[in-house]
Design goal:
By secondary structure, the chain is of the alpha/beta class. The protein contains 13 helices and 23 strands. Helix 2 crosses helix 8 and helix 5 crosses helix 6. The N and C termini lie far apart (52 Å).
Length: 521
């Protein structure tokens, strides 16, 4: 069975399943298109070129129109668990099955279908995202037997705090910005919730009790201590820490009161990218285990709809998947030999260059699904000096308070961090040991969002990390996404060369070729 699934709206994606295996998940922002963009013509044509047959099932994720047409649904709509649209249809002349279920269901089914198989009488799914904030209890036939609403718009409320403090964010008519949640997560580390005074507590209480933040009700907070306070002000950092704690505590208390103990927890929705919250769930003693997919935000929604169609037709939602299910790198040009010299990669020499402070654009294989660079579309650098963090943030043209993540050989984690567990998708915070000396990847609160690497998860990157360990004693590097600010991952040579030449990155590794900028370049 071949399933094509489409996610409309922001984070537009097309996913393709064949006989339970994920062939592709192509987010339209990738290949240097604008972040969060809707499905574009390029993505459609890429799927047409790379898939060798027409589908048996066309699955459309539910959504809602925006603006004046907000009342009109796309497919099965945004909310709801029991509405399915199914009918025979034609797709470029072929008889196919059309299927649609809600956006809400796409998150539930993505978490279930991508989670490890197991015998579970009950499973718990947490969907917390911009709009939805609820637990779902699922039986062994993958039927949702209970829904426990907790807080509407948790992701929207979290993002809105950043806009509330930002003088450039309008007082009326704007929606919380999709990229503000990650910034607020970074700022929360600079604050302490226990330092919140009565004015900060009151502002956070109002934000949590607001009827809606769509559109953001900033004008109603003009009397608040947070109104246009500045995103890097201490009051904003304190409020971010308090809001982070309050949201998690609200969901945790609901879980203890209303959910049976000992079920596995599957997390879906954009809040699943918050590594602080994920670490807190991992330490929470109510669930038997925690699983977060790497595309837990809307970038995985198309996969969820495909999984839902598969479950509807077969009774089994589980799929086989690989995080590197994007497209191969496009060699649309060759770097100018007058400006770049090319040679086969020598990992020992490359590790030496990294140790000396060089920043390397690192491209391997197919791009990663989800928003995190996991060693196939990355900027790599040595992890020891704070100046390296500042240099990478300058190259990426982003705020100086944003942390840089480490990538670490799995066998080195116990030497560098307080907790020794596998995290190949960079989804949990842990603490950096004081003796590690990796200042570039240590956030202000001593935390780090680590991607662990083993030969089975990313063999090529593990080999480079081993060469760096031979050079500097530990297999850890800085790892941050290779992209123009405000755009998805770079995926073609012409963009890569333009990026590196415009930002002073003088080393590019693409596959097994190492391109070094000439001295006069």
């Amino acid at each position: 069975m071949l399933v094509f699934a489409l996610k409309p709206g922001h984070d537009g994606t097309i996913a393709v399943l064949r006989d339970r295996r994920l062939l592709y998940s192509l987010e339209s922002e990738k290949d240097s298109f604008g972040r969060y963009t809707t499905v574009n013509v390029n993505t459609v044509l890429e799927i047409a070129e790379h898939v060798d047959a027409l589908p048996d099932v066309v699955a459309l994720g539910g959504w809602r129109e925006q603006g004046t047409m907000r009342h009109r649904s796309i497919g099965a709509g945004y909310d709801g668990l029991d509405t399915f649209l199914e009918r025979p249809a034609r797709f470029f002349g072929k008889e196919v099955r059309f299927f649609s279920s809600s956006h809400e269901r796409s998150h539930v089914m993505m978490a279930l279908g991508m989670a490890p198989r197991g015998e579970h009488p009950l499973q718990t799914v947490l969907v917390w995202e911009g709009d939805t904030g609820a637990f779902y209890l699922v039986d062994d036939a993958f039927r949702i037997v209970r829904t426990i609403p907790v807080l509407s718009e948790p992701g929207g409320r979290f993002s809105f705090l950043f806009g509330l403090a930002d003088p450039t964010f309008p007082d009326e008519g704007a929606l919380p910005r999709l990229n503000d949640a990650g910034k607020l997560m970074a700022l929360a580390a600079f604050g302490d919730a226990d330092d919140a005074d009565a004015d900060v507590v009151a502002a956070v209480d109002r934000l949590l009790s607001a009827d809606t933040v769509y559109p953001a009700p900033k004008k109603d907070f003009r009397d608040s201590v947070l109104y246009n306070a500045g995103v890097e002000s201490q009051v904003t950092k304190t409020a971010a820490a308090l809001l982070s704690r309050r949201i998690f505590d609200l969901f945790a208390a609901t879980a203890r009161e209303h959910l049976p103990q000992g079920t596995p927890l599957r997390i879906s929705g954009g809040c699943g990218l918050n590594c602080d919250w994920n670490a807190a769930w991992a330490e929470f003693d109510h669930f038997s285990s925690v699983f977060v997919p790497p595309c837990t935000n809307d970038s995985g929604s198309a996969i969820g709809t495909a999984v839902d169609a598969l479950h509807r037709l077969t009774g089994d939602p589980h799929i086989d998947w690989d995080v590197y299910s994007g497209l191969e790198f496009v060699h649309d040009t060759e770097p100018d030999p007058a400006r770049w010299q090319s040679a086969p990669v020598d990992d020992t020499a490359l590790a030496g260059a990294l140790a000396q402070g060089r920043v390397v654009a690192w491209v391997q294989g197919r791009w990663e699904i989800g928003p995190r660079a996991l060693g196939n579309r990355s900027l790599l650098a040595e992890p020891f000096r704070e100046e390296t963090r500042d240099l990478l943030n300058t190259i990426k043209q982003r705020e100086g308070y944003r942390p840089i993540a480490p990538v670490c050989r799995l066998e080195d984690t116990a030497r560098v961090f307080d907790k020794d567990f596998e995290d190949p998708y960079m989804l949990y915070f842990r603490r950096v040991l004081p003796s590690a000396g990796i200042a570039a990847v240590t956030h202000v609160d001593g935390s780090a969002r680590v991607q662990t690497v083993s030969p089975s998860t990313n063999a090529r990157l593990h080999t480079l990390l081993s060469a760096f360990a031979a050079e500097r004693g530990v297999g850890v590097l800085c790892n941050t996404s290779l992209n123009f600010n405000g755009h998805g991952f770079i995926n073609r040579m012409s963009d890569l060369v333009r990026y590196c030449e415009s930002r002073g990155v003088r080393d590019m590794v693409v596959g097994e070729r190492w391109y070094r900028a000439r001295a006069h370049g």
